[in-house]
Amino acid sequence: NAQQNTAVIRAGQNKTVISKYIYSHFAEHLGRCIYGGFYVGDTSKIPNTAGVRNDIVAALKKMKIPSLRWPGGCFADTYHWKDGIGPKDKRPSIVNKWWGGVTEDNSFGTHDFLNMCELLNTDPYLAGNIGSGTVQELADWVQYVSSDNKNPMSNLRRENGRDKPWDVRFWGVGNEAWGCGGNMTPEYYANEFKKYATFMTGDKLFRIASGANSADYHWTETLMKIIPSHLVEGVALHHYSVIDWNKKGPAVKYTEDQYFRTMKSALFMEELVTKHSAIMDKYDPQKKIALVVDEWGGWYDVEEGTNPGFLFQQNTMRDALIAGVTLNIFNNHADRVRMANLAQAINVLQAVILTDKEKMILTPTYHVLEMYNVHQDATLLPVELTTKDYVFGNEKLPAVSVSASADKAGVTHITLTNIDPKNAQEIEITLDTSAYKNLTGRILTSKTLQDYNSFSTPDKLKSVAFKEASLKGGKLKVKLPPISVVVLELKK
Ligand code: AHR
Protein backbone atom coordinates (compact mmCIF):
# COMPACT_ATOMS: atom_id res chain seq x y z
CA ASN A 1 0.00 0.00 0.00
CA ALA A 2 1.67 3.23 -1.17
CA GLN A 3 1.89 6.05 1.41
CA GLN A 4 1.64 8.75 -1.23
CA ASN A 5 0.25 9.22 -4.71
CA THR A 6 2.92 10.23 -7.20
CA ALA A 7 3.21 10.33 -10.95
CA VAL A 8 6.10 11.00 -13.30
CA ILE A 9 5.30 12.08 -16.83
CA ARG A 10 7.90 11.21 -19.43
CA ALA A 11 8.24 12.89 -22.78
CA GLY A 12 7.29 10.10 -25.20
CA GLN A 13 10.25 8.67 -27.08
CA ASN A 14 8.47 6.43 -29.54
CA LYS A 15 5.74 9.03 -30.26
CA THR A 16 2.70 6.80 -29.97
CA VAL A 17 -0.40 8.62 -31.16
CA ILE A 18 -3.63 8.08 -29.21
CA SER A 19 -5.94 7.23 -32.08
CA LYS A 20 -9.09 9.31 -31.97
CA TYR A 21 -10.97 6.08 -32.74
CA ILE A 22 -10.42 4.98 -29.11
CA TYR A 23 -13.29 7.43 -28.47
CA SER A 24 -15.75 5.68 -30.79
CA HIS A 25 -19.32 4.59 -30.14
CA PHE A 26 -21.78 1.86 -30.95
CA ALA A 27 -25.42 1.96 -32.13
CA GLU A 28 -27.36 -1.28 -32.46
CA HIS A 29 -30.92 -1.98 -33.53
CA LEU A 30 -31.67 -2.64 -29.88
CA GLY A 31 -34.35 -1.10 -27.69
CA ARG A 32 -34.50 2.68 -28.18
CA CYS A 33 -31.00 3.24 -29.53
CA ILE A 34 -31.98 3.73 -33.18
CA TYR A 35 -35.79 3.86 -33.19
CA GLY A 36 -36.95 6.44 -30.62
CA GLY A 37 -33.32 7.40 -30.02
CA PHE A 38 -31.28 8.62 -32.97
CA TYR A 39 -34.16 8.17 -35.38
CA VAL A 40 -37.65 9.61 -34.87
CA GLY A 41 -38.72 9.67 -38.54
CA ASP A 42 -39.13 12.72 -40.74
CA THR A 43 -42.78 13.27 -39.76
CA SER A 44 -41.87 13.71 -36.07
CA LYS A 45 -42.49 17.05 -34.31
CA ILE A 46 -39.03 16.70 -32.77
CA PRO A 47 -36.67 18.81 -34.93
CA ASN A 48 -34.84 16.39 -37.23
CA THR A 49 -32.87 16.02 -40.44
CA ALA A 50 -34.19 13.15 -42.55
CA GLY A 51 -35.62 11.65 -39.37
CA VAL A 52 -32.46 11.98 -37.23
CA ARG A 53 -32.80 14.19 -34.12
CA ASN A 54 -30.95 17.49 -34.48
CA ASP A 55 -30.30 17.83 -30.73
CA ILE A 56 -28.56 14.46 -30.64
CA VAL A 57 -26.43 15.34 -33.66
CA ALA A 58 -25.38 18.64 -32.07
CA ALA A 59 -24.52 17.03 -28.72
CA LEU A 60 -22.49 14.20 -30.26
CA LYS A 61 -20.59 16.62 -32.50
CA LYS A 62 -19.72 18.72 -29.46
CA MET A 63 -18.52 15.60 -27.64
CA LYS A 64 -16.56 14.61 -30.81
CA ILE A 65 -17.59 11.20 -32.02
CA PRO A 66 -14.90 9.83 -34.33
CA SER A 67 -16.61 6.61 -35.42
CA LEU A 68 -19.93 4.81 -34.94
CA ARG A 69 -20.45 1.03 -35.19
CA TRP A 70 -23.75 -0.25 -36.65
CA PRO A 71 -26.13 -2.20 -36.90
CA GLY A 72 -24.98 -4.56 -34.10
CA GLY A 73 -23.93 -6.40 -31.97
CA CYS A 74 -25.86 -9.62 -32.05
CA PHE A 75 -28.34 -7.95 -34.41
CA ALA A 76 -25.63 -7.68 -37.09
CA ASP A 77 -25.55 -11.43 -37.67
CA THR A 78 -29.30 -11.43 -38.37
CA TYR A 79 -29.29 -8.32 -40.55
CA HIS A 80 -29.77 -8.47 -44.31
CA TRP A 81 -28.78 -5.04 -45.57
CA LYS A 82 -30.79 -5.34 -48.80
CA ASP A 83 -33.97 -5.29 -46.65
CA GLY A 84 -33.07 -1.73 -45.62
CA ILE A 85 -32.66 0.02 -48.99
CA GLY A 86 -35.14 1.41 -51.52
CA PRO A 87 -38.60 2.88 -50.85
CA LYS A 88 -39.41 2.59 -47.14
CA ASP A 89 -42.97 1.35 -47.67
CA LYS A 90 -41.69 -1.57 -49.73
CA ARG A 91 -39.10 -2.78 -47.22
CA PRO A 92 -39.76 -6.19 -45.65
CA SER A 93 -40.09 -6.53 -41.88
CA ILE A 94 -38.09 -8.87 -39.72
CA VAL A 95 -38.33 -9.91 -36.08
CA ASN A 96 -35.48 -8.74 -33.87
CA LYS A 97 -34.63 -12.16 -32.47
CA TRP A 98 -32.14 -11.00 -29.87
CA TRP A 99 -33.68 -7.83 -28.54
CA GLY A 100 -37.23 -8.06 -27.25
CA GLY A 101 -38.67 -9.92 -30.26
CA VAL A 102 -39.94 -6.63 -31.68
CA THR A 103 -40.82 -6.20 -35.35
CA GLU A 104 -38.18 -4.28 -37.26
CA ASP A 105 -39.62 -2.47 -40.26
CA ASN A 106 -36.20 -1.68 -41.75
CA SER A 107 -37.12 1.99 -42.10
CA PHE A 108 -33.62 2.88 -40.86
CA GLY A 109 -31.19 1.28 -43.31
CA THR A 110 -27.83 1.75 -44.98
CA HIS A 111 -28.56 5.16 -46.56
CA ASP A 112 -30.10 6.45 -43.34
CA PHE A 113 -27.10 5.35 -41.29
CA LEU A 114 -24.38 6.55 -43.65
CA ASN A 115 -26.09 9.91 -44.22
CA MET A 116 -26.41 10.26 -40.44
CA CYS A 117 -22.66 9.63 -40.11
CA GLU A 118 -22.05 12.48 -42.55
CA LEU A 119 -24.23 14.75 -40.37
CA LEU A 120 -22.29 13.67 -37.29
CA ASN A 121 -18.97 14.05 -39.07
CA THR A 122 -18.10 10.56 -37.93
CA ASP A 123 -16.55 7.59 -39.72
CA PRO A 124 -18.95 4.68 -40.13
CA TYR A 125 -18.05 1.21 -38.93
CA LEU A 126 -20.33 -1.38 -40.55
CA ALA A 127 -20.67 -4.78 -38.90
CA GLY A 128 -21.22 -7.49 -41.52
CA ASN A 129 -23.42 -10.55 -41.16
CA ILE A 130 -21.51 -13.80 -41.33
CA GLY A 131 -23.86 -15.72 -39.02
CA SER A 132 -26.98 -15.92 -41.18
CA GLY A 133 -25.57 -14.06 -44.19
CA THR A 134 -23.37 -15.07 -47.08
CA VAL A 135 -19.99 -14.12 -48.49
CA GLN A 136 -21.77 -12.68 -51.54
CA GLU A 137 -24.04 -10.52 -49.36
CA LEU A 138 -21.13 -8.93 -47.52
CA ALA A 139 -19.06 -8.50 -50.71
CA ASP A 140 -22.11 -6.80 -52.27
CA TRP A 141 -22.53 -4.46 -49.30
CA VAL A 142 -18.91 -3.31 -49.62
CA GLN A 143 -19.45 -2.65 -53.33
CA TYR A 144 -22.80 -0.93 -52.75
CA VAL A 145 -21.46 1.66 -50.32
CA SER A 146 -17.88 2.15 -51.55
CA SER A 147 -17.61 1.57 -55.27
CA ASP A 148 -17.47 4.39 -57.78
CA ASN A 149 -17.32 2.07 -60.81
CA LYS A 150 -20.22 0.96 -62.88
CA ASN A 151 -21.30 -2.35 -61.44
CA PRO A 152 -24.63 -3.85 -60.38
CA MET A 153 -24.26 -2.77 -56.73
CA SER A 154 -23.15 0.82 -57.26
CA ASN A 155 -25.79 1.15 -59.98
CA LEU A 156 -28.39 0.03 -57.46
CA ARG A 157 -27.09 2.64 -55.00
CA ARG A 158 -27.47 5.32 -57.65
CA GLU A 159 -31.03 4.15 -58.38
CA ASN A 160 -31.70 4.59 -54.66
CA GLY A 161 -30.65 8.22 -54.84
CA ARG A 162 -26.97 8.27 -53.90
CA ASP A 163 -24.57 8.99 -56.69
CA LYS A 164 -21.16 9.19 -54.99
CA PRO A 165 -20.05 6.39 -52.69
CA TRP A 166 -19.74 7.03 -48.97
CA ASP A 167 -16.39 6.81 -47.27
CA VAL A 168 -16.57 3.50 -45.37
CA ARG A 169 -13.32 2.14 -44.08
CA PHE A 170 -14.18 0.08 -41.00
CA TRP A 171 -15.82 -3.31 -41.49
CA GLY A 172 -16.62 -5.89 -38.86
CA VAL A 173 -16.59 -9.48 -40.09
CA GLY A 174 -19.25 -10.92 -37.77
CA ASN A 175 -19.81 -10.22 -34.08
CA GLU A 176 -19.20 -12.40 -31.03
CA ALA A 177 -18.72 -15.42 -33.28
CA TRP A 178 -18.15 -17.47 -30.09
CA GLY A 179 -21.75 -16.70 -29.01
CA CYS A 180 -24.73 -14.98 -30.67
CA GLY A 181 -22.76 -14.73 -33.94
CA GLY A 182 -22.87 -18.49 -34.51
CA ASN A 183 -21.39 -20.34 -31.50
CA MET A 184 -18.23 -21.08 -33.46
CA THR A 185 -14.87 -22.39 -32.30
CA PRO A 186 -11.98 -19.98 -32.90
CA GLU A 187 -10.49 -22.33 -35.52
CA TYR A 188 -13.76 -22.48 -37.45
CA TYR A 189 -14.28 -18.72 -37.20
CA ALA A 190 -10.72 -17.92 -38.31
CA ASN A 191 -11.28 -19.95 -41.48
CA GLU A 192 -14.64 -18.30 -42.10
CA PHE A 193 -13.01 -14.91 -41.59
CA LYS A 194 -10.40 -15.64 -44.25
CA LYS A 195 -13.10 -16.54 -46.74
CA TYR A 196 -15.18 -13.40 -46.11
CA ALA A 197 -12.15 -11.08 -45.96
CA THR A 198 -10.84 -12.44 -49.28
CA PHE A 199 -13.96 -11.38 -51.16
CA MET A 200 -14.28 -7.89 -49.67
CA THR A 201 -12.77 -5.47 -52.18
CA GLY A 202 -11.44 -1.93 -51.78
CA ASP A 203 -8.09 -0.18 -51.31
CA LYS A 204 -8.39 1.05 -47.77
CA LEU A 205 -10.48 -1.58 -46.06
CA PHE A 206 -9.99 -1.97 -42.33
CA ARG A 207 -11.32 -5.47 -41.61
CA ILE A 208 -12.00 -6.27 -37.98
CA ALA A 209 -12.17 -9.89 -36.84
CA SER A 210 -14.73 -10.79 -34.19
CA GLY A 211 -12.68 -10.99 -31.03
CA ALA A 212 -12.44 -12.63 -27.67
CA ASN A 213 -14.91 -12.57 -24.85
CA SER A 214 -12.93 -10.91 -22.03
CA ALA A 215 -10.11 -13.24 -20.90
CA ASP A 216 -10.47 -15.83 -23.66
CA TYR A 217 -6.80 -15.59 -24.68
CA HIS A 218 -7.01 -18.81 -26.68
CA TRP A 219 -9.41 -17.02 -29.05
CA THR A 220 -6.94 -14.23 -29.81
CA GLU A 221 -4.02 -16.66 -30.11
CA THR A 222 -5.93 -18.85 -32.60
CA LEU A 223 -6.99 -15.91 -34.77
CA MET A 224 -3.47 -14.49 -34.84
CA LYS A 225 -2.08 -17.92 -35.76
CA ILE A 226 -4.53 -18.75 -38.55
CA ILE A 227 -5.38 -15.43 -40.21
CA PRO A 228 -2.59 -14.05 -42.45
CA SER A 229 -1.79 -10.43 -41.73
CA HIS A 230 -2.66 -9.21 -45.24
CA LEU A 231 -6.32 -10.12 -44.63
CA VAL A 232 -6.91 -8.41 -41.28
CA GLU A 233 -6.39 -4.91 -39.91
CA GLY A 234 -8.02 -5.28 -36.49
CA VAL A 235 -8.87 -7.96 -33.95
CA ALA A 236 -11.71 -7.19 -31.56
CA LEU A 237 -12.21 -7.71 -27.83
CA HIS A 238 -15.44 -7.36 -25.81
CA HIS A 239 -15.49 -6.73 -22.09
CA TYR A 240 -18.32 -5.31 -19.99
CA SER A 241 -18.00 -4.05 -16.41
CA VAL A 242 -20.43 -6.48 -14.87
CA ILE A 243 -20.66 -7.95 -11.38
CA ASP A 244 -22.25 -11.29 -12.27
CA TRP A 245 -24.15 -12.04 -15.48
CA ASN A 246 -26.94 -13.68 -13.48
CA LYS A 247 -27.13 -10.96 -10.81
CA LYS A 248 -26.07 -7.68 -12.32
CA GLY A 249 -27.60 -5.37 -9.69
CA PRO A 250 -29.33 -2.01 -10.10
CA ALA A 251 -28.02 0.90 -12.18
CA VAL A 252 -28.77 3.49 -9.48
CA LYS A 253 -29.56 2.03 -6.07
CA TYR A 254 -26.41 -0.03 -5.78
CA THR A 255 -24.44 -0.66 -2.59
CA GLU A 256 -20.76 0.17 -2.08
CA ASP A 257 -20.05 -3.55 -2.39
CA GLN A 258 -21.69 -3.56 -5.85
CA TYR A 259 -19.80 -0.40 -6.76
CA PHE A 260 -16.50 -1.97 -5.74
CA ARG A 261 -17.18 -5.09 -7.81
CA THR A 262 -18.13 -3.07 -10.87
CA MET A 263 -14.93 -1.02 -10.63
CA LYS A 264 -12.92 -4.21 -10.19
CA SER A 265 -14.39 -5.49 -13.44
CA ALA A 266 -13.71 -2.16 -15.17
CA LEU A 267 -10.09 -2.07 -13.99
CA PHE A 268 -9.62 -5.64 -15.21
CA MET A 269 -9.41 -4.02 -18.66
CA GLU A 270 -5.76 -3.19 -17.84
CA GLU A 271 -4.89 -6.88 -17.57
CA LEU A 272 -7.02 -7.77 -20.58
CA VAL A 273 -5.43 -5.33 -23.00
CA THR A 274 -1.95 -6.13 -21.65
CA LYS A 275 -2.35 -9.88 -22.16
CA HIS A 276 -4.22 -9.78 -25.48
CA SER A 277 -1.59 -7.31 -26.75
CA ALA A 278 1.25 -9.60 -25.62
CA ILE A 279 -0.28 -12.45 -27.67
CA MET A 280 -0.63 -10.17 -30.68
CA ASP A 281 3.01 -9.05 -30.24
CA LYS A 282 4.17 -12.65 -30.75
CA TYR A 283 2.59 -12.86 -34.21
CA ASP A 284 2.70 -9.20 -35.17
CA PRO A 285 5.75 -7.61 -33.51
CA GLN A 286 5.44 -4.51 -35.68
CA LYS A 287 1.96 -3.88 -34.29
CA LYS A 288 0.31 -3.56 -37.69
CA ILE A 289 -2.92 -5.14 -36.47
CA ALA A 290 -5.00 -3.08 -34.04
CA LEU A 291 -6.70 -4.35 -30.92
CA VAL A 292 -10.25 -3.01 -31.26
CA VAL A 293 -12.27 -3.04 -28.03
CA ASP A 294 -15.52 -2.58 -29.90
CA GLU A 295 -17.82 -3.21 -26.93
CA TRP A 296 -17.15 -1.98 -23.39
CA GLY A 297 -19.01 -0.29 -20.55
CA GLY A 298 -21.14 -0.95 -17.47
CA TRP A 299 -24.03 -3.43 -17.70
CA TYR A 300 -26.71 -3.54 -14.97
CA ASP A 301 -30.33 -4.64 -14.52
CA VAL A 302 -32.77 -2.71 -16.70
CA GLU A 303 -34.84 0.08 -15.09
CA GLU A 304 -37.99 -1.20 -13.43
CA GLY A 305 -40.98 -1.39 -15.75
CA THR A 306 -38.90 -1.33 -18.95
CA ASN A 307 -38.62 -4.13 -21.51
CA PRO A 308 -35.82 -6.49 -20.35
CA GLY A 309 -34.78 -6.91 -23.99
CA PHE A 310 -34.19 -3.15 -24.36
CA LEU A 311 -31.24 -2.85 -21.92
CA PHE A 312 -32.25 0.61 -20.74
CA GLN A 313 -30.34 1.74 -17.63
CA GLN A 314 -29.69 5.04 -15.82
CA ASN A 315 -26.17 6.40 -15.65
CA THR A 316 -24.56 7.59 -12.40
CA MET A 317 -21.15 8.75 -11.20
CA ARG A 318 -20.14 5.06 -11.17
CA ASP A 319 -20.45 5.16 -14.97
CA ALA A 320 -18.42 8.36 -15.16
CA LEU A 321 -15.65 6.60 -13.24
CA ILE A 322 -15.83 3.49 -15.43
CA ALA A 323 -15.40 5.74 -18.46
CA GLY A 324 -12.56 7.72 -16.84
CA VAL A 325 -10.47 4.71 -15.81
CA THR A 326 -11.13 2.75 -19.00
CA LEU A 327 -10.18 5.60 -21.32
CA ASN A 328 -7.00 6.15 -19.29
CA ILE A 329 -6.18 2.45 -19.79
CA PHE A 330 -6.82 2.66 -23.55
CA ASN A 331 -4.71 5.82 -23.86
CA ASN A 332 -1.82 4.18 -22.03
CA HIS A 333 -2.04 1.17 -24.39
CA ALA A 334 -2.50 3.24 -27.55
CA ASP A 335 0.39 1.45 -29.26
CA ARG A 336 -1.95 -1.54 -29.77
CA VAL A 337 -5.46 -0.35 -28.83
CA ARG A 338 -6.38 1.80 -31.79
CA MET A 339 -10.16 1.71 -31.65
CA ALA A 340 -12.76 1.21 -28.92
CA ASN A 341 -16.53 1.59 -28.95
CA LEU A 342 -18.53 2.36 -25.84
CA ALA A 343 -21.79 0.36 -25.66
CA GLN A 344 -24.09 2.03 -26.58
CA ALA A 345 -24.63 5.63 -27.68
CA ILE A 346 -28.31 6.32 -26.91
CA ASN A 347 -30.75 4.75 -24.38
CA VAL A 348 -28.92 1.40 -24.21
CA LEU A 349 -26.41 0.20 -21.55
CA GLN A 350 -23.79 2.87 -20.69
CA ALA A 351 -25.30 5.54 -22.89
CA VAL A 352 -23.96 9.05 -23.36
CA ILE A 353 -27.48 10.34 -24.10
CA LEU A 354 -30.90 9.32 -22.76
CA THR A 355 -34.17 10.45 -24.32
CA ASP A 356 -37.77 10.59 -23.18
CA LYS A 357 -39.97 11.66 -26.09
CA GLU A 358 -38.76 15.19 -26.98
CA LYS A 359 -36.54 15.46 -23.89
CA MET A 360 -32.87 14.60 -23.95
CA ILE A 361 -30.25 14.41 -21.20
CA LEU A 362 -26.49 14.15 -21.29
CA THR A 363 -25.28 11.50 -18.86
CA PRO A 364 -22.20 11.76 -16.60
CA THR A 365 -20.53 9.41 -19.11
CA TYR A 366 -21.14 12.00 -21.86
CA HIS A 367 -19.32 14.62 -19.81
CA VAL A 368 -16.29 12.34 -19.35
CA LEU A 369 -16.09 11.60 -23.09
CA GLU A 370 -16.33 15.31 -23.78
CA MET A 371 -13.63 16.18 -21.21
CA TYR A 372 -11.29 13.47 -22.55
CA ASN A 373 -11.68 14.40 -26.24
CA VAL A 374 -8.49 16.50 -25.93
CA HIS A 375 -6.55 13.22 -26.18
CA GLN A 376 -7.94 12.41 -29.64
CA ASP A 377 -4.98 12.05 -32.04
CA ALA A 378 -2.60 13.59 -29.49
CA THR A 379 0.81 12.08 -28.70
CA LEU A 380 0.87 9.83 -25.67
CA LEU A 381 3.05 10.93 -22.77
CA PRO A 382 3.85 7.78 -20.76
CA VAL A 383 3.16 8.12 -17.01
CA GLU A 384 4.65 6.16 -14.12
CA LEU A 385 2.02 6.13 -11.39
CA THR A 386 2.23 5.12 -7.75
CA THR A 387 -1.19 5.18 -6.16
CA LYS A 388 -2.71 4.61 -2.76
CA ASP A 389 -5.47 2.05 -2.48
CA TYR A 390 -9.21 2.34 -2.30
CA VAL A 391 -9.85 -0.21 0.44
CA PHE A 392 -13.20 -1.95 0.84
CA GLY A 393 -13.46 -4.73 3.42
CA ASN A 394 -10.48 -7.01 2.82
CA GLU A 395 -10.02 -5.93 -0.76
CA LYS A 396 -8.41 -3.01 -2.51
CA LEU A 397 -8.19 -1.31 -5.88
CA PRO A 398 -5.88 1.46 -7.13
CA ALA A 399 -7.54 4.72 -6.08
CA VAL A 400 -6.06 6.97 -8.77
CA SER A 401 -5.74 6.49 -12.51
CA VAL A 402 -4.02 8.79 -14.99
CA SER A 403 -3.04 9.32 -18.62
CA ALA A 404 -1.40 12.22 -20.44
CA SER A 405 -0.85 13.50 -23.96
CA ALA A 406 0.56 16.43 -25.90
CA ASP A 407 -1.56 17.77 -28.75
CA LYS A 408 -0.41 19.16 -32.08
CA ALA A 409 -0.31 22.71 -30.69
CA GLY A 410 2.06 21.57 -27.94
CA VAL A 411 -0.59 21.72 -25.19
CA THR A 412 -0.39 18.94 -22.59
CA HIS A 413 -3.49 17.33 -21.09
CA ILE A 414 -3.62 15.08 -18.06
CA THR A 415 -6.75 13.15 -17.13
CA LEU A 416 -7.12 11.76 -13.62
CA THR A 417 -9.75 9.83 -11.68
CA ASN A 418 -10.26 9.11 -7.99
CA ILE A 419 -12.59 6.12 -7.54
CA ASP A 420 -12.38 6.22 -3.71
CA PRO A 421 -15.87 7.27 -2.59
CA LYS A 422 -14.73 8.51 0.84
CA ASN A 423 -11.18 9.87 0.65
CA ALA A 424 -9.70 12.71 -1.32
CA GLN A 425 -6.37 11.88 -2.98
CA GLU A 426 -3.51 14.32 -3.18
CA ILE A 427 -1.03 13.60 -5.92
CA GLU A 428 2.29 15.13 -6.85
CA ILE A 429 3.04 14.94 -10.56
CA THR A 430 6.55 15.46 -11.91
CA LEU A 431 6.15 16.94 -15.38
CA ASP A 432 8.20 16.26 -18.50
CA THR A 433 9.45 19.87 -18.48
CA SER A 434 9.44 22.89 -16.20
CA ALA A 435 8.50 25.17 -19.10
CA TYR A 436 4.77 25.13 -18.38
CA LYS A 437 3.39 28.52 -17.38
CA ASN A 438 -0.35 28.21 -17.55
CA LEU A 439 -2.60 25.66 -15.81
CA THR A 440 -6.38 25.23 -16.05
CA GLY A 441 -8.67 22.35 -15.27
CA ARG A 442 -12.19 20.94 -15.22
CA ILE A 443 -13.81 18.43 -12.91
CA LEU A 444 -16.86 16.17 -12.84
CA THR A 445 -17.71 15.16 -9.29
CA SER A 446 -20.60 14.68 -6.90
CA LYS A 447 -21.17 14.05 -3.19
CA THR A 448 -22.82 10.69 -3.76
CA LEU A 449 -21.86 7.92 -6.16
CA GLN A 450 -25.47 7.19 -7.03
CA ASP A 451 -26.17 10.74 -8.29
CA TYR A 452 -27.38 11.05 -11.88
CA ASN A 453 -28.97 13.44 -14.35
CA SER A 454 -32.73 12.94 -14.56
CA PHE A 455 -35.20 14.43 -17.00
CA SER A 456 -36.27 16.89 -14.26
CA THR A 457 -32.67 17.75 -13.19
CA PRO A 458 -30.75 17.33 -16.46
CA ASP A 459 -27.78 19.48 -15.41
CA LYS A 460 -27.19 18.18 -11.89
CA LEU A 461 -23.90 16.64 -13.01
CA LYS A 462 -21.65 18.44 -15.46
CA SER A 463 -18.03 19.51 -15.61
CA VAL A 464 -17.01 22.74 -13.87
CA ALA A 465 -13.77 24.68 -13.39
CA PHE A 466 -11.25 22.88 -11.18
CA LYS A 467 -9.10 24.95 -8.81
CA GLU A 468 -7.41 22.34 -6.62
CA ALA A 469 -4.24 22.14 -8.68
CA SER A 470 -1.08 24.22 -8.47
CA LEU A 471 2.01 24.41 -10.62
CA LYS A 472 5.53 25.18 -9.43
CA GLY A 473 8.49 24.63 -11.69
CA GLY A 474 8.19 21.15 -13.10
CA LYS A 475 5.85 19.91 -10.32
CA LEU A 476 2.11 19.81 -10.18
CA LYS A 477 0.13 19.30 -6.98
CA VAL A 478 -3.45 18.14 -7.36
CA LYS A 479 -6.14 17.37 -4.80
CA LEU A 480 -8.74 15.01 -6.24
CA PRO A 481 -11.96 14.91 -4.23
CA PRO A 482 -13.64 11.52 -3.71
CA ILE A 483 -15.62 10.32 -6.79
CA SER A 484 -13.96 12.59 -9.33
CA VAL A 485 -12.82 12.83 -12.93
CA VAL A 486 -10.46 15.70 -13.79
CA VAL A 487 -8.82 17.07 -16.92
CA LEU A 488 -5.88 19.46 -16.62
CA GLU A 489 -4.48 21.63 -19.39
CA LEU A 490 -0.89 22.86 -19.34
CA LYS A 491 0.47 25.47 -21.71
CA LYS A 492 4.02 26.65 -22.13
O1 AHR B 1 -24.30 -4.43 -26.54
C1 AHR B 1 -25.28 -5.42 -26.34
C2 AHR B 1 -24.83 -6.79 -26.80
O2 AHR B 1 -23.76 -7.23 -26.05
C3 AHR B 1 -24.33 -6.88 -28.22
O3 AHR B 1 -25.36 -7.02 -29.15
C4 AHR B 1 -23.50 -8.13 -28.19
O4 AHR B 1 -22.46 -8.09 -29.14
C5 AHR B 1 -23.00 -8.18 -26.76
O5 AHR B 1 -23.17 -9.43 -26.22
Automatic annotation (TrEMBL):
<dbReference type="InterPro" id="IPR010720">
    <property type="entry name" value="Alpha-L-AF_C"/>
</dbReference>
<dbReference type="Pfam" id="PF22848">
    <property type="entry name" value="ASD1_dom"/>
</dbReference>
<dbReference type="InterPro" id="IPR055235">
    <property type="entry name" value="ASD1_cat"/>
</dbReference>
<dbReference type="InterPro" id="IPR013780">
    <property type="entry name" value="Glyco_hydro_b"/>
</dbReference>
<keyword id="KW-0732">Signal</keyword>
<keyword id="KW-0119">Carbohydrate metabolism</keyword>
<protein>
    <recommendedName>
        <fullName>non-reducing end alpha-L-arabinofuranosidase</fullName>
        <ecNumber>3.2.1.55</ecNumber>
    </recommendedName>
</protein>
<comment type="similarity">
    <text>Belongs to the glycosyl hydrolase 51 family.</text>
</comment>
<keyword id="KW-0326">Glycosidase</keyword>
<feature type="domain" description="Alpha-L-arabinofuranosidase C-terminal">
    <location>
        <begin position="294"/>
        <end position="484"/>
    </location>
</feature>
<comment type="subunit">
    <text>Homohexamer; trimer of dimers.</text>
</comment>
<dbReference type="Pfam" id="PF06964">
    <property type="entry name" value="Alpha-L-AF_C"/>
</dbReference>
<dbReference type="InterPro" id="IPR017853">
    <property type="entry name" value="GH"/>
</dbReference>
<keyword id="KW-0378">Hydrolase</keyword>
